[in-house]
Known about the structure:
It is built from five helices and no strands. The protein is mainly alpha-helical. It has one domain: Up-down Bundle (Four Helix Bundle (Hemerythrin (Met), subunit A)). 36% of the residues are buried. InterPro entries: MAPEG, MAPEG-like_dom_sf, Membr-assoc_MAPEG.
Amino acid sequence: MTSVLEVPQGLSYVAAALVSTVILLAGQNITVSKYRKAAGIKYPQAYAELSQVEASVDALKFNCAQRAHQNTLENIPIIVLSTLVSAVKLPHIAAASCGLWVVSRVLYTRGYVTGKPEKRNAGGFGYLPTIVLLGTSLYAAGSLVLAGI
């Protein structure tokens, strides 16, 4: 038995939103490298140690940049997968939610790297598009299952 899956209009927006996640990660990677160099933290050390942080605001900012990047890496599989599944039925919502999540991560990172971790909350609205993507991906997957695809 074969099934036909139509490519929904608006899929180009989903592609653009997903590419923006790559740009986000690249930007965070550059930011981490910049703060690593400023703090003088050598590879393979992942984070500055407490004594380094107490001695240098640059070391604190490096840790903040590293944590912002790590947190994004922890969440990116959820965002990418739920965006792709949601896009099958609701591409515009998937693209907008993914794009909004990326904007939230930019604000999160910019706030975090000030050296005042509480400023990361400027991007705290990123949970809203995540919840939307989880809900719409459940809807899309359920629709596919019910359609026997």
